Amino acid sequence: GAGVSQSPSNKVTEKGKDVELRCDPISGHTALYWYRQSLGQGLEFLIYFQGNSAPDKSGLPSDRFSAERTGGSVSTLTIQRTQQEDSAVYLCASSLGGHANEKLFFGSGTQLSVL
Amino acid sequence: GNSVTQMEGPVTLSEEAFLTINCTYTATGYPSLFWYVQYPGEGLQLLLKATKADDKGSNKGFEATYRKETTSFHLEKGSVQVSDSAVYFCALMRNSGNTPLVFGKGTRLSVIA
Q1: Around B55, how many Cα atoms within 13 Å sit in the side-chain half-sphere?
Q2: Which of A59, A114, B8, B51, CA to CA, is 20 to 30 A from B24?
Q3: Which of A43, A56, A57 to mutate to test the interface with B (most CBs of B within 10 A)?
């Protein structure tokens, strides 16, 4: 596609429910990133996929968070048993090869609200 | 570990004022450095970058110089406009291996006419 696409754009859920957030990266981009943007916390790295390598999960805040990337393209971020502190904007980004000087292209994000 | 510290906002300036947003970093090795910008209602986008010491990144009148001796990458613009109102993020990525981009907390800039 023309850009990184995320869905849904907004998600309201009740505490304790599971949610799935989807990211469609730019076609041909091998690197995919998930970040969380909370008020006053800036951009927090969650997980990074690069080609067929094992993902870098070092930013996932708890075992309730997981992500997968099928076929090297679409990625799904899953949050189980959501808590109110999970409320944030979840941003996905992709880049061509994951190299250090490459530009990241960001999606518009999913605004998650946990009631 | 790798981290980025940038000045806290919000920053409010009058149009045509000089802008500096400070950014310092901690990293192993020599990272690439970036400034990303998030305009109201829009997604994050790359503003400028520098990949080695003494490089200067520039775009849209903004500049930042990679200073290894002070581990800094301060963002500057000589004359801001109302359209520059946005949140600015400093970021780094290690040059060795596949690593994620590490961001600072962001600085909100408001420019008033």
Answers
A1: 14
A2: A59
A3: A43
